[in-house]
Amino acid sequence: MKPSRRKLFRCYRNPASLLQVELVRRAEGRYLVPTPRALELVLRLRAAGIDVETAAGALDVLRKQSRRTADELVGYLLNRTGKGFARGGTPEDVAQALAALRAEVVPAVEMLVAQEMERAVRAAFGPGAALDVRWQGPQE
After folding, report:
1. CA 64 to chain centre
2. How far apart are CA 36 and CA 40, in angstroms?
3. pTM of the predicted model, to two decimals?
4. Hey, what's the torsion of the CAs at 138, 41, 59, 56, to 10 degrees?
């Protein structure tokens, strides 16, 4: 675990809630963190006033939607192999196209989620509501 993550974890005095949402596991008298970035994110959200259970639940929602999106995107691209995706459709072309896509998917997802959160907030609170959901990047 990175030093910044260790510091965040040490500052958090109640590992029971982290254990409950399975961000931390206990084994042989030690805490194990299966996904350090998820733990870091949840602890940062907690510091911003979102409790551990709510933050972990939000991550679960994102994970479910991301899984479905990834499956749909891969299916779409495979159907387009050699017809607008992966040039000639060779394994090398597919690998190259996927590498390029992977490099651009995070900024694309950030943009799309921010736009959709803004839309959802306006729908929930009315057209005058505004929410700045721009992602600031990791805080190291």
Report:
1. 10
2. 6
3. 0.73
4. -170
Domain hosting 115: range is 80-128
Helix residue ranges, H only, 1-140: 3-11, 15-20, 36-47, 52-79, 91-125
Convert the pLDDT of each residue in 99-111 to its tens digit.
999 999 999 999 9
If asked whether residues 87 and 54 sit together in one domain, one would say no
Task: Measure the CA angle with vertex 93, ends 87 and 94; round to 5°.
Answer: 105
Same domain for 96 and 44, yes or no, is no
Using alpha carbons, select from 58, 71, 92 the residue that is nearest to residue 79. 71
- Domain total in the chain: 2
Q: Is residue 138 part of a domain?
A: no
Say how far residue 20 (Cα) sits from the centre of its chain. 20
Q: Is residue 72 part of a domain?
A: no
